[in-house]
Amino acid sequence: xxxxxxxxxxxxxxxxxxxxxxxxxxxxxxxxxxxxxxxxxxxxxxxxxxxxxxxxxxxxxxxxxxxxxxxxxxxxxxxxxxxxxxxxxxxxxxxxxxxxxxxxxxxxxxxxxxxxxxxxxxxxxxxxxxxxxxxxxxxxxxxxxxxxxxxxxxxxxxxxxxxxxxxxxxxxxxxxxxxxxxxxxxxxxxxxxxxxxxxxxxxxxxxxxxxxxxxxxxxxxxxxxxxxxxxxxxxxxxxxxxxxxxxxxxxxxxxxxxxxxxxxxxxxxxxxxxxxxxxxxxx
Amino acid sequence: xxxxxxxxxxxxxxxxxxxxxxxxxxxxxxxxxxxxxxxxxxxxxxxxxxxxxxxxxxxxxxxxxxxxxxxxxxxxxxxxxxxxxxxxxxxxxxxxxxxxxxxxxxxxxxxxxxxxxxxxxxxxxxxxxxxxxxxxxxxxxxxxxxxxxxxxxxxxxxxxxxxxxxxxxxxxxxxxxxxxxxxxxxxxxxxxxxxxxxxxxxxxxxxxxxxxxxxxxxxxxxxxxxxxxxxxxxxxxxxxxxxxxxxxxxxxxxxxxxxxxxxxxxxxxxxxxxxxxxxxxxx
Lengths: 283, 283
Hints:
Chain A has a 9-stranded mixed sheet, with helices on both faces. Chain A has helices spanning 59-63, 67-73, 118-133, 148-159, 180-190, 202-207, 229-233, 235-245, 261-280, and strands at 2-9, 12-21, 26-34, 44-50, 76-80, 136-146, 164-170, 218-223, 249-254.
């Protein structure tokens, strides 16, 4: 792992790293925020932040305003990139397919299947690397994200309950198999057999989960002025599935807020507190 | 004035505007944050934020994390661009001259003198426009900035004490007439007669100010890992001038912090509180 930079912020440290990833076959960048006081002898819980379409490893670090609360609560935050990158990596001219639009799954279809393996990258390769290189608690990891990254947080969180003890999302794509963004990406990455999509659809996963009444609550914030709400996001579908499975969901609708990082910044402190509460109780 | 966008953030409203500026002879963009509850019948104090080299009207809005505290304290924040812009406006290939590097003065030399009139733009034209278009208190305005914008905040604040009742800066260029960034810009914009530079040099203005022991305190934050500290910033020169003039200066040195917006975000709440305290007592 190559450390690209290290900057002090809120008495903690923001580190940018780059490494050659086996799972995606390219160089990948990510950031790690280390709260003050963390050390090998005093490791901290970790929240994984998954960003949305068109984002890189930079959007969250500069715009979310998360580090004040993370420093106070003693949380590490890891923010990976949203896809493999590079001239040798397949891409598409559209903003919602290819580089910048990995959708946190392992593609099975050409030309994507070699590099577009973000599910393996996030849950396995990068997870192991972060545990080896930083003073992070393996047994206290949570996952959060925005839009496409909210889809990632919900699906990875539901698929790996032993790995992620807390889940939250901002304006997530909760039912990708039923909305244009998801249908386009899943067709390309997973092929036309829609049965293979269900394992990457948070609403389908929740419906198939059985009784989740004993599971940790999930927090979702959604702006009511979000330009993608009606066509792409549809949080009511996930809420209905949670109700069926007994999953406690705190779904908050916020009048006037859009899809931007200004919305995220406004409510990020509540997400940090949600993860801190669950992760400090974990392990 | 054309409103380009309006977004809710921390229960307030961030508005981006564009207008044809007389003073700079081009279209100019700026942002205005309106805290919740402000109205024509209940106008709020205003803090002017001046950004640094290479910045546009966007860096502060997305990265400073200022609106949480501004919403709490009930402050309007106006963030203008750092220079005139456009294909018809003179420019230079260097990052520290021309577009993005207006230095908050009125240029007297060709080819800059027609458009590079940021002093008149900020203190007069945009100031009057904001007072006319937004519920802002004319009698409760403060000024703050970063790096080149810290130079702007200090010099405009010292030159217009009736307009600006509170001053603060992050990592300001306090003695531009004596450091490379300032000497290069002043030579180009003001010509070789260095006597004309003194009115745009915060340290020279402070030295010439006479007794300022009754004036409001000035707050400056400076990172000790700032890569520009020794060559370009030199806060000790301004501190010495303040000591001579009896000006109360709170100059805080922060170990480990660099020149970035992560540094600004870490301490912006203290600046918001500084301005709120002085401006709420003004008028």
